Structures are given as structure tokens and as C-alpha cells.
Amino acid sequence: MRATPALVVAAALALSACGSSNDNTSSSSTPSASTTAAQSCDKANLSLYKSGQLTVATDKPAYPPYFEDNKPENGKGFESAVAYAIAKKLGFAPTEVKWVVEPFNSSYAPGPKKFDFDVNQISINPARSKRVDFSAPYFTAPQAVVAPKGSDAASVTSLSDLASKKIGVQIGTTSLDAVNETVKPSQQPQVYNDSNDVVQALKQKRIDAVVVDLPTAFYITAAQVPGSKIVGQFAAPGGDNWGALLGKGSKLTPCVTKAVNELKADGTLDALQKKWLGAAAGAPELS
């Protein structure tokens, strides 16, 4: 178990109390931990796959709304934009970012990596974290509502409007929890054993709408249910977290995490999510 910050501070104080009162070492002569951390994340000090460039990986083809025109290097699409925002925090100009192809399933396999970090809708989970590193999450998947175009459910603009509809959802998912705890439907949701059953029920119009995570909603409307649309999205606890993936023990991991945390704190990640995964992408927010 990792020591908490409070325990670390307490230990440091205990050690200093044991020192000699004649110790003349000036505290100003030793860099602080925060200064050392900042220096280690200076561009010149970064441990990179190839010197002088930041090598970023994703799969091919690269799909919207995460990438546009199958060109990660154009900076368009949510994950392309996030990668360039991280690169900027690390001190790299767009021309210093090199994109490479890494298939999704091989990205989290153990072993050396031919990239600095990978962005590819990769959920952080314990099994993967044993084999690779992840940065702090740059995205937590919200829930989304999908309904047939032209239906009554397709015109809802709020969660209260949705509550009166017959909603389909997969058993054992965070989406089921979100329906019960956030939407609070007036009738019990229709619960299905797997995602295929949910999709078939929507196709056959045995339900008015389905609730799934937003990435799944994009896939359903693009590939599984022609004539369907994302009615909207809403925040709910328990969504999948996506992180930048790095090789296990990468010296770059703390710096990428630092960059992601700064992008979260200054509102950049929220702005990019709204731009690429929000109303403009056909997924307005429901409240």
C-alpha cells in the first residue's frame, strides 16, 4: 500500500527531529520535491522513444468523433486534440509530434513499446494496469440515450421527459444504475442479458430508447441501428475512464499525468469534450 501524503510528511518531520541541532545545512541548497518534479518534466529531460519528437500511437482506421478523416495528425477529433494538448504541455510543437499505428489489442500487451503514449479509447482497468502504465484519466464516459429518428423519444430534451419512456438497458452495467438512480423512470426499465439483445429490442421498437455509455452510443448509431440518433448525454457515476497508455514503468508516465491533470484543471479537457463529443457531434446534454 502506498503511503499517504500525511504519513510521508509525518515521517519527514520525525527524521528532521532526529537530526543534530548543529546541522548547518541550508534548506535552500536542496531543491524541493516540486521543483525536482517540474525539472524532470522539462522537455530536455524527458525520456522519449525517439529523441527530438513525441511519438503518439493509435489504431488504424481512426474513427470519428475521436479522429476525423482517418488522419490523427490533423488535430481534429477528441483524442487527436487531446494528444496535441498533452504534447503542448510537454513542450512540443505540433510539427514535433509523430503518429504511429498501434492495433488496439496489442497496445496493452506486455513488453516494450514503439511509442511514447497511445490514445485509443483505452479503458483503465486492473488487468491492463498490471502490464502497462496509464496516465490520469482524460475522459470519463457519460451515459447516452439512443432512439429511432422521428420517434417521440427522439425529441426529449430533459431527463424528466425521458422518465416516461420505455427504456432498454443491459443487466449488470453502469447504464442500468444510471437509469434507476439518475433518470428514475416511471416504469421499470426493460433489462436484457447482453448488448445484442438491447440493440435488437431497439431495432424492433419493443422499447422507446436505450441507455448506454456515450462511446457505445456513437457505435450503435453509426453501425448497428440505421435510422437511430443520440438523443443526448448525461453524467452519471461509474463511467469508464480512458487514459493515455504508456509502457510499464515508463519514466514519462508522471509527466503525462501532470499534463492531463493541468488540462483538466484549466478547463481544456472539458472544452474539447464539449467541442468533439457534445452537441456538435450530435450528443447534446440532458439535464
Helix-strand blueprint:
Blueprint: H1 5-17, H2 33-40, E1 54-58, H3 78-89, E2 97-101, H4 104-107, E3 117-118, H5 126-129, E4 132-140, E5 143-148, H6 159-162, E6 167-170, H7 174-183, E7 190-192, H8 195-203, E8 209-213, H9 214-224, E9 228-234, E10 241-247, H10 253-265, H11 268-277
Write up this protein.
The chain has 287 residues and is α/β, with parallel strands linked by helices. It folds into two domains: 43-141 and 240-281, D-Maltodextrin-Binding Protein, domain 2; 143-234, Periplasmic binding protein-like II (D-Maltodextrin-Binding Protein, domain 2), CATH 3.40.190.10. The protein has helices at 5-17, 33-40, 78-89, 104-107, 126-129, 159-162, 174-183, 195-203, 214-224, 253-265, 268-277; strands spanning 54-58, 97-101, 117-118, 132-140, 143-148, 167-170, 190-192, 209-213, 228-234, 241-247. It has a five-stranded mixed sheet with strand order 7-6-8-5-9. Strands 2-1-3 form a three-stranded parallel sheet, with helices on one face. A two-stranded antiparallel ribbon has the order 4-10. The chain is elongated.
